[in-house]
Amino acid sequence: MSAYASLSGHFDRIAAMSNAIGILQWDSDAMMPTGAAGARAESMALLRVLQHEMAVDPRLGDWLAEAEGDADLTDWERANLREIRRVWSVQTALPADLVAASSKAVSACEMAWRQARAESDFPSLLPYLAEVLKLQREAGVAKGERLGLGVYDALLNDYEPGGRAQKIDALFDDLAAFLPGFTEEALAAQARRPAPAPLEGPFPVEAQRRLGTRIMTALGYDFSRGRLDVSTHPFCGGADNDVRITTRYDETDFSKALMGVIHETGHALYEQGRPAAYMGQPVGQARGMSVHESQSLLMEMQACRSPQFLAYAAPVMREAFGASGPDWEAEALWRRYTRIERGFIRVDADEVTYPAHVILRYRLEKALIADAMPLAELPMAWNAGMKDLLGIIPPNDALGCLQDIHWPSGGWGYFPTYTLGAMTAAQLFDAACRAEPDALPGIARGDFAPLVGWLRTNIYEQGSRYETDELLTRATGRPLDASVFKAHLARRYLPAG
Hints:
By secondary structure, the protein is mainly α. 64% of the residues lie in helices and 3% in strands. It folds into 2 domains: 3-159, no CATH class; 165-198 and 263-493, Neurolysin, domain 3 (Orthogonal Bundle). The protein has helices at 3-30, 37-55, 59-67, 75-91, 96-119, 122-147, 151-159, 165-191, 205-219, 254-272, 288-303, 307-321, 330-337, 354-369, 378-390, 416-435, 439-444, 449-458, 468-476, 482-493, and strands spanning 228-230, 236-239, 242-247. The protein has a 3-stranded mixed sheet. It starts with a helix and ends with a helix. Keywords: Carboxypeptidase, Hydrolase, Metal-binding, Metalloprotease, Protease, Zinc. Its EC number is 3.4.17.19.
């Protein structure tokens, strides 16, 4: 057996372990009874240690060195070696006891977060979150020493390979300067138009679920390889060829669950469309979280808040809830789905104010990782940041620093990928609509095949074959360009002329 074949077989086994962990994690977040949390944490910790041991197998270094000298490998295989070395370099930096301790701390913190969020009780979460943060710092130090990176960049690298805080700082500082003035201008333009009337509920959960599954099917989600469930925080998870999503329902406002479903379906389409021949290999994985978030935000913000989507969806919504009247017409729904409002909850935010939520979290997590701010001061710092960036102050911590699961689940360094993803989404959607003239007319008919087909060819099926900048340049003709995102916002939210 060649060195490359040995590596490939080894990583197929690691992928099988990841799939088992993925299903157990989905169950923990969606269906597990609370009394099972302790035993589940022990099981997850053991599986993650075993997976880590496989990823740092002493044979991998020798196999890599030999395989990288093989002149007969294909371009895909060479890209796979690059990604295997990336995984190996990071994993060998982490001691097994740190992996186990982090897994247990995250499991305990996630359960504590659910109760703390429900009760708006940050002090009850503080000791659990402090332990997660301490271990994340240790992991960042270990990875940074191996990769020659600072602590935050080492954590960011897990989600955005090659990403650096210095570049994000410049980008986010620019957005933080641009968005307040733009938001004021867009709100003023909005005030000159008739405000959409509230849609009268209630909207039964089962009717919302049927609507969600119908839209998921139109988008191209394969229910033979996934399912829709409920969780405290919407997410996409599961395993290879078993891609599961969740949402949460509010019987007074069906749009929250529907847009959550569309967002997570964007993630799921990417996962379901990854290259089948390399599904278990690092090169077959998604190309970092900014690209992954671009797929969810492309569907939620670019495609499914367009006039074309509402032309298709308006009669579908009326049928779902037995509704009628002018407030349910496409134009009124479009004004509702593109309404700008300063709000407390990130996942419910419009695309104009959404980046401010991300910039806040990015700045806070950088300060916490650098130990430049005591964790106990997070609620106060959060509220101050919300006032500066959005002009509002959360009335409680459930609507403030307790709203997201990312930090309790160990996702430090993840947040900036949301806004990087929003910009990437605008650029990809623009390129897709130019390359596929039937993309927008298709959406108006409920036919997403032209759009999804372009994404499948240019993004899904490419996996991690290319680095992020090259992938985006191949798909759109240029690397990430914030001007495309700004131009999109201006077209949608400012009057023409």
